[in-house]
Design brief:
The complex is a heterotrimer. Chain A is mainly alpha-helical. Chain A has 17 helices and eight strands. In chain A, strands 1-2-3 form a three-stranded antiparallel beta sheet. Chain A has a three-stranded antiparallel beta sheet with strand order 6-7-8. A two-stranded antiparallel sheet of chain A has the order 4-5. The N and C termini of chain A lie far apart (46 Å). By secondary structure, chain B is an alpha/beta fold. In chain B, strand 26 and strand 27 form a beta hairpin. In chain B, helix 8 runs parallel beside helix 21. Chain C is an alpha+beta fold. Chain C has a domain of 121 residues: Alpha-Beta Plaits. In chain C, the strands form three sheets. Chain C has a three-stranded antiparallel beta sheet. Chain C has a two-stranded parallel ribbon with strand order 1-7. In chain C, strands 2-5 form a two-stranded antiparallel ribbon. Chain C is elongated and about 90 Å long. Chain C starts with a helix and ends in a 14-residue tail after the last strand. The chains are: A mainly alpha, B alpha/beta, C alpha+beta.
């Protein structure tokens, strides 16, 4: 009796040998979503790794073409769902660039504040799950506890925890609630202690060292060639950060460092993110100190919804409200690319407008997608068990990869 | 070609025709100039002050809608000064406007909203209390909120210039000016054109009141199904329900502009009416009940019965009757069914007015509605276009009022259009043929004048007017003419001879949306007329296949003989007197549910497009015919595609040669069918026949002296129009209800005899 | 690295790590025993919608369709209608009212755009978040489910005060 072997499971080079192809995922706890890796193994060593994506494809970029500009914001929430405010920011800033809008100071500062809080939250999820993948379970709970505090803050400001849609084209959904600053201050005050706990739990741990040091190495040149951005790039010693190179929302005026590590391994990327949380914490404090009363919406009556009170008492405001909601606003024809430093790297938004109320084309340069393409290089020659460590270290979110 | 002059607008030099209006020139070249009151082809108003421009050497800002371009004019349309003036105007317009966009039906397609958004600021300095007036009804069709009015007076101008009715006017002075009616109740033809042209929510469609938003409606451009003018309209549908019909130029730009009549605009509720036939129905037993059946059963049953009758009595036992209300595709399928499946020439269409003599002798092109608008002389013999072909009526009125045309009317009834006529010739009833005789030559003036009851000199005057015409001369005729007279009239351009600078155009006035199409397909010049065909019932004829229903005049008195037929198959929307006789009834799709073409009275072939999927189990008529054919083992090859049917029409019908759906796509450039023009023919026979007919005519000189009431034809509750609840109200005399604040529908019930009874409000 | 130093290093790391763990034993617990205890939600939280009524109990909604136009997921379905009765007898505050007002929670993404769009303050987000059902059709909520006078509020949430410090709400062990 002969057995037919499906081609992907066929023994490749040497007969009676150990090289075999296995599927990791799409239902696998360590692939952070529905990612499938096609791994060719020689014993326990990776010979070839091919990421297979598309299991979470939602047609997001096409969807934008059927939504008015302001409706597109909610779609961005669902892209990198660990960093929704960053996605919101990239999108609204790209549209604002097309419209040529001036955003008031207070809105800018709040955007920075919220985005840095979100960055910390995103890194906390990364830290918890990354450590969990490698085997350290305790830290997961502490990370999620801290993240819970940030999500409560985001919920207090926007009403949504995972899908805040807090930023609007031309400003914010609404101003911060009363007492928000005090609560942020409380979080800021408590966070260094939590960060210290995380360091205590992991940074000195030899098991963690062994699982991460010298694993998944990518050199600085390769990292640039592969298009890596964000902490994954800085882990290879390249100090590139969009907040520095192409500052937006006033990042040039904030005092923060760009942490880098020279080795390009999993450990370096871990260290970069740990230090980045500290830098974000610093920016949060500065932003909080800068909060001055003022408007949070741009003075652009044809784009921004009018004040609710005015809308109920003034005819012209009501008409503007009605038409902006019902028909949207026209955005001048043109193309724009706007990059921001999201928690995972450079998130770029490309928008092409044909002058109407709906975009002609929207495209995202998602950091997760580009960073994932470096995975095969990183895991080549590593052990099978290290794959989960490397996946964790590039911090991908499948919602952004599959769009 | 008119002289060209140079105008400088915003630094760009443009060449334009002398006498062009400045606002048109600006807009044509992409310089946006806002306006409310300016409406092309209406008298100028210059009341909204939005179209202000700066013209060099003129002291103040000028309204560009009233300025005629002159050579060397230097115009600025955009500057701070102009913007300030415009913003101030918008602010004034909003000073008294209630804050009710959320309630107003115009929201989303309101020109005031758009103007404020595009040209207004966000500054409102008026803090005084606004005037208040409740929303009210002006008629069952028109709702009115006086406070939303910006006094552009488009409605009053349209009512006057298009409809000649002057039913709506501005009353009061200054800040208290309101648009209103005499006596507070609108007794007019209820065309609703004031609603259409209103830029705000002042005048609203009461039948669509508070129902949906424009952005929720899927707009489908299609052709009206009510008269032979073939107006282009846009059906707004939402989840399978047609909510309204409009001709607003943002949705559709057809031969009619924004014009529609009461039927086109308001008589659409029949489409989703609950009385529509839902399933095929079969009467298994003579005298039994119509029982719902499946499509397969009904088609199979019909095919089996047809086969049996065919075997027993031969092909000529069948009669097939199309309808001038169906699409060309449906009529063609019937014709093909008769010829190829049954093999009989017993086919016809249920139209009482056959245009066959006209088209056989046609010696001048058909006049489009645009031709009528710019004609120089218009001769109208019989007919009453205002009630039966409202667009033609409006075009005639505008030709006279705005174009200075000379209108001559021959009619036995003093129709309303006579107000516009240069010459209204009141003739004796039934003597329309004599008019043709008189127009054809002077030989019979004595005879004609005698019978017509007019002086011979009058007829000579008309002939002289025809003779002197420079430009287009349009001959319109109604259904009163005999076949010989129609043939002679069609030959009149040849009889009078060609002359430089004069062009004759013909324009028949048939009753139905596709009368011309039914003729073109070949149903109307068949062997037998409807009456002749029906008279054979019980003799040679054993089975009838009727699409649509028979006209009352054909049906009355024949019920008993028809009941004796072996099989009557009917395709209908509703249960009618004809389906009462039927053995099998197929639910047909209405014009809103099918694709196809209609040919209007100007010979223009226009698309009918599917707006909603067929309701219940209805199917398009041509599909039913094709299904029946395939049950009788004949494949029509239509493959469920209306365009395939039309392609076949284009291959078989000479006038439609080369036409395809893509060529008919643009409703703003309708395509005229190429009806063959006959050369000069010897008409002595026909003239002799008319003469003999007139001589033997026993003429009464009792002419109606009273002008018929507005809407005496339009409001008649037909099978389709009576499904709009407001129509019976109008037909009952449009009584003013006790309170105008609530729709009269809730206050007045109309009993079976269509007499209005007033009940207490809120009852 | 020798085995001895390896063991020493590892032991040190473990002690350090366990130190963190043990230090939490006397501290307050941060978890919420939902559903035995109510979850605290923020005042701006976006839960199941509420349709509001005015002081006479008439629906505030005038069926202007702006919420449906603003909705990015097309989950709101309205049929507007005329109510010719006197203002006292009417269902809504205006003659125009929503005969049907459905929200399909299979589509709704709780973005709050409808609330922002409503010119009459007729729709807001409530706090009900327990929307799971056994049947997909039940996700379609009608006016009977949404009206503030009719919607059943879950006992499993508590709305925080406007400036309440939710995070400090540690529970005693």
């Amino acid at each position: 009796m002969s057995v037919t072997v499906p081609p992907q499971f066929e023994v490749l080079d040497r007969p009676l040998d150990t090289q075999m192809t296995i599927s990791m995922g799409p239902q696998h706890p360590s692939t952070h979503g529905v990612l499938r890796l096609e791994l060719v193994l020689d014993g326990e060593m990776i010979v070839k790794c091919t990421p297979d994506i598309g299991y979470l494809h939602t047609g997001m970029e096409k969807l934008f073409e059927y939504k008015k500009y302001q409706q597109g914001i909610v779609i961005t929430d669902r892209m990198d769902y660990l960093n929704p405010l960053g996605n919101n920011l990239a999108y609204v800033m790209a549209v604002e660039k097309l419209l040529g809008l001036e955003i008031p100071e207070r809105a800018q500062v709040i955007r920075v504040l919220m985005c840095e809080l979100q960055r910390i939250a995103s890194h906390l999820v990364w830290l918890g799950t990354h450590a969990l993948d490698i085997g350290a379970m305790t830290i997961f709970f502490y990370c999620f506890r801290e993240r819970e505090k940030i999500l409560n803050l985001i919920e207090a400001a926007s009403g949504g925890r995972l899908t805040p849609s807090y930023f609007r084209i031309g400003g914010l959904m609404m101003d911060l609630p009363a007492g928000f600053e005090r609560r942020v201050q409380q979080f800021i005050d408590g966070f260094p202690a939590a960060l210290k706990d995380f360091q205590n739990l992991l940074t000195g741990n030899t098991i963690f060292h062994r699982r991460t040091k010298g694993i998944g190495i990518v050199s600085a040149e390769d990292a640039i060639d592969l298009g890596l951005t964000g902490p994954s790039l800085r882990g290879s010693g390249v100090a590139i950060d969009v907040r520095r190179t192409n500052p937006y929302t006033g990042y040039e005026t904030y005092d923060f460092e760009i942490p880098t590590e020279p080795n390009g391994d999993v450990w370096s990327r871990y260290m970069v993110r740990m230090r980045e949380m500290h830098e974000s914490w610093k920016i949060t404090q500065q932003a909080l100190d800068r909060l001055k009363p003022g408007p949070v919406k741009a003075d652009a009556p044809k784009v921004v919804l009018p004040d609710r009170e005015a809308m109920k008492t003034h005819m012209d405001a009501l008409i503007h409200h009605f038409l902006i909601v019902a028909e949207g606003f026209n955005v001048p024809a043109g193309e724009v690319y706007h990059p921001i430093e999201a928690s995972k790297g450079e998130l770029g938004v490309y928008i092409k407008s044909d002058g109407g109320p709906k975009p002609a084309r929207v495209h995202f340069r998602g950091p997760s997608f580009v960073n994932l393409s470096a995975l095969p290089y990183m895991v080549n020659g590593e052990m099978l068990a290290d794959v989960v460590a490397v996946i964790g270290s590039i911090d991908i979110v499948l919602g952004e990869i599959d769009r | 070609m008119a002289d060209l002059i140079k105008v400088t607008i915003n630094g760009n030099v443009y060449e334009t025709e002398k006498g062009a209006r400045l606002i048109d020139v600006c807009r044509e070249h992409g310089h946006a100039v806002p306006s409310f009151c300016y409406y092309s082809d209406l008298a100028l108003q210059a009341s909204c002050r939005m179209c202000l421009v700066r013209i060099e050497k003129m002291p103040k800002l000028q309204t560009s809608c009233t300025i005629t371009c002159t050579d060397g004019m230097i115009v600025t349309t955009e500057s701070e000064e102009i913007e300030k003036a415009q913003r101030a105007m918008v602010e004034f317009l909003l000073a008294n406007h209630p804050l009710d966009c959320p309630v107003c039906d115009r929201g989303g397609e309101c020109e005031l909203q758009e103007m404020v958004f595009d040209w207004g600021g966000l500054e409102e300095r008026f803090s005084e209390r606004k005037n208040y007036a409740p929303e009210k009804f002006l008629s069952p069709m028109v709702a009115n909120d006086p406070q939303r009015c910006i006094l552009c007076k488009r409605c009053t101008r349209v009512c006057d210039e298009w409809m000649g009715e002057d039913a709506i006017e501005a009353g009061g002075r200054g800040a208290h000016t309101v648009i209103g009616t005499y006596d507070g109740w609108l007794n007019c033809s209820e065309c609703g054109n004031c609603i259409e042209v209103c830029p705000t929510g002042t005048l609203l469609d009461a039948t669509y009141r508070h129902q949906a938003r424009p952005w929720e409606l899927a707009q489908t451009i299609t052709t009206c199904t009510f008269c032979s003018d073939g107006c282009q309209l846009s059906l707004g549908a939402r989840v399978g329900e047609v909510m309204r019909a409009v001709a607003r130029d943002r949705y559709v730009d057809g031969i009619n502009g924004e014009f529609l009549c009461i039927k086109g605009r308001f008589a659409h509720p029949f489409i989703n009416h609950e009385e529509r036939i839902r399933t095929p129905l079969i009467r298994y037993k003579q005298g039994g009940r119509l029982v719902p059946a499946t499509w397969d059963d009904a088609i199979g049953y019909t095919a089996a019965r047809m086969r049996a009758i065919g075997e027993a009595h031969g092909a000529d036992a069948f009669g097939i009757i199309g309808s001038p209300r169906l699409t060309n595709e449906a009529n063609y399928a019937l014709l093909k069914f008769a010829r190829e499946v049954i093999g009989t020439e017993n086919f016809t269409a249920s139209d009482a007015f056959s245009l066959a003599p006209c088209f056989e002798n046609l010696s001048a092109p058909l006049a489009t509605h645009r031709d009528i608008r710019f004609a120089k002389t218009i001769i109208l013999v019989g007919g009453e276009p205002e009630e039966l072909q409202p667009l033609t009526g409006k075009q005639i009125r505008q030709a006279v009022r705005n174009g200075g045309a000379r209108l001559v009317i021959f009619n036995s009834v003093p129709i309303r259009l006579k107000e516009q006529a240069a010459q209204f010739i009141h003739i004796n009833p039934g003597t329309e043929d004599a008019v043709v005789l008189a127009l054809a030559g002077a030989n019979d003036d004595e005879l004609a004048a005698g019978k017509l009851g007019v002086e011979a000199k009058t007829l000579a005057d008309v002939r002289r007017a025809l003779d002197e015409t420079q430009g287009d001369c349009v001959l319109l005729f109604g259904s009163e003419l005999s076949a010989a007279a129609m043939a002679t009239l069609a030959q009149l351009p040849q009889l009078l001879g060609a002359r430089e600078g004069r062009r004759f155009l013909l324009h028949p006035l048939p009753f139905y949306n596709n009368s011309v199409g039914a003729h073109d397909i070949g149903l109307m010049n068949a062997k037998l007329s409807v009456a002749q065909l029906l008279d054979q019932a019980g003799q040679g004829l054993r089975a009838l296949y009727i699409a649509g229903s028979l006209l009352p005049e054909h049906l009355r008195g024949r019920e008993e003989t028809l009941r004796q037929l072996d099989l009557i198959v009917v395709q209908e929307l509703f249960e009618t007197e004809t389906t009462a006789l039927a053995d099998v009834v197929f639910p047909a799709a209405s014009f809103a549910e099918t694709d196809g073409t209609f040919t209007n009275n100007a010979g223009q072939v226009q698309r009918v497009r599917q707006s909603i999927p067929p309701v219940h189990q209805a199917r398009p008529d041509w599909m039913i015919t094709a299904a029946l054919a395939s049950a009788l083992n004949a494949d029509f090859g239509f493959q469920l595609s209306a365009s395939a049917v039309f392609r076949e029409i284009a291959e078989h019908i000479a006038a439609y040669e080369g036409l395809r759906y893509p060529l008919l796509k643009d409703e703003s450039r309708p395509v005229q069918a190429k009806h063959a023009l006959a050369g000069a023919r010897d008409m002595t026979g026909a003239i002799q026949e008319i003469r003999a007919r007139i001589q033997s005519m026993n003429v009464t000189s009792a002419r109606p002296t009273e002008t018929p009431k507005v809407g005496h034809e339009l409001f008649k509750p037909g099978t389709l129009t009576s499904k709009t609840p407001q129509f019976p109200l109008l037909y009952a005399g449009n009584p003013k209800p006790p309170t105008v604040l609530v729709s009269p529908l809730y206050q007045i019930t109309v009993d079976a005899n269509l007499r209005a009874t007033t009940v207490a409000a809120g009852d | 690295m020798s085995i001895i130093s390896d063991v020493i290093e590892s032991t040190k790391a473990i002690i350090k790590g366990m130190g963190v763990t043990f230090s939490y034993i006397p501290k307050e617990k941060w978890t919420v025993e939902y559903p035995d205890e109510p979850v605290t939600v923020q005042p701006r939280y976006r839960g199941q919608h509420l349709l509001h009524v005015d002081e006479h109990g008439r629906e505030k909604c005038v069926a202007c369709f702006l919420c449906a136009a603003a909705c990015p997921s097309d989950c709101i379905y309205i049929i507007a209608a005329d109510d010719p009765r006197s203002p006292e007898e009417r269902i809504g505050v205006d003659e125009r009212y929503a005969k049907v007002y459905n929200i399909d929670y299979g589509r709704c993404i709780f973005c709050g755009f409808c609330v922002e769009a409503c010119p009459k303050d007729a729709i807001t987000h409530g706090y009900n978040f327990e929307l799971s059902v056994y049947n997909r059709a039940d996700l379609l909520k009608t006016k009977d489910d949404l009206l503030i006078t009719k919607q059943k509020q879950s006992p499993n949430y508590r709305v925080a005060f406007a400036d309440e410090d939710v995070d400090s709400e540690y529970k005693e062990v």
